[in-house]
Amino acid sequence: MLDMQSSVRVEDFQFPAGSAQLSARLYLPAHTPRVAVVINSATGVPRDYYQHFATWLVAERGMACLTYDYRDFGHSLTGPLAASTATMSDWALVDMPAAYAEMQRRFPDLPLWVIGHSVGGMLGPLQPGIESIARMICVCSGLVHHSDHPWPYQALARLFWFGHAPLLVKTLGYLPGRAIGFGTDLPPGVYWEWRRWCTTPGAYLPETGHRLPIPDWGRSRAQVDLFACADDDTIPPECVWRLADLYGDSARQHLLRPKEHGLRDIGHLGAFARRNAALWPRLIAQ
């Protein structure tokens, strides 16, 4: 199957992640790729949101790029959400490493790059399989408490964590994201774990060694670049810099300001939007 750009081939398939089968799309150049890239999505963002960025990586940079949906979400959803036992930890500690393994299986001789958006980069230092990663790029990934958000966005966050959203999850058995303006529906376990991390000060770190593994990015030694957006109310820059501490002294920190790139806004999701393609060379520059 050919993408809208004739130089890009697209393959849809599934790959195993523990007990789950994840739905994936692989973008391939007409010639032998020089880098294998895995894109880890943000929470509630389906794989197809990254299709324009993935196509650009292939057509303009000669890379192979894998996008996929986490278990019980998007194209990987196979049953009623209320019956799902998936957690955010499952996404990060099982599904993401499975994607790395799949790309290594297909391209064993290529350097593996991981581009993590929000939660897609947040748990990198805790994951198994990071020894194979040659480069890690985190975009709007950070350790955030609800008090970190600026107002008036903080009011929306408090409503999401303490208002109607948890009541709806308890009532319906899943997060009805489409109905409340979040964008997508989520499994209950994903919502509750996400809520605990974002409403308990330091919850991410105390859980390591108990609920979560101890972070150790030193197992990888990969180059790490963390990008914060100056106008991101969801993961403000100071939360991104907090995550940098887990990646270690070698992590490079970058602040993206919309006006410096001739853009009106970037926010939490905009770095991968086609309208902001001017950012893309900056994200992968070495």
UniProtKB/TrEMBL annotation:
<protein>
    <submittedName>
        <fullName>Alpha/beta fold hydrolase</fullName>
    </submittedName>
</protein>
<dbReference type="GO" id="GO:0016787">
    <property type="term" value="F:hydrolase activity"/>
</dbReference>
<dbReference type="InterPro" id="IPR022742">
    <property type="entry name" value="Hydrolase_4"/>
</dbReference>
<dbReference type="Pfam" id="PF12146">
    <property type="entry name" value="Hydrolase_4"/>
</dbReference>
<feature type="domain" description="Serine aminopeptidase S33">
    <location>
        <begin position="33"/>
        <end position="124"/>
    </location>
</feature>
<dbReference type="InterPro" id="IPR017208">
    <property type="entry name" value="UCP037442_abhydr"/>
</dbReference>
<dbReference type="InterPro" id="IPR029058">
    <property type="entry name" value="AB_hydrolase_fold"/>
</dbReference>
<keyword id="KW-0378">Hydrolase</keyword>
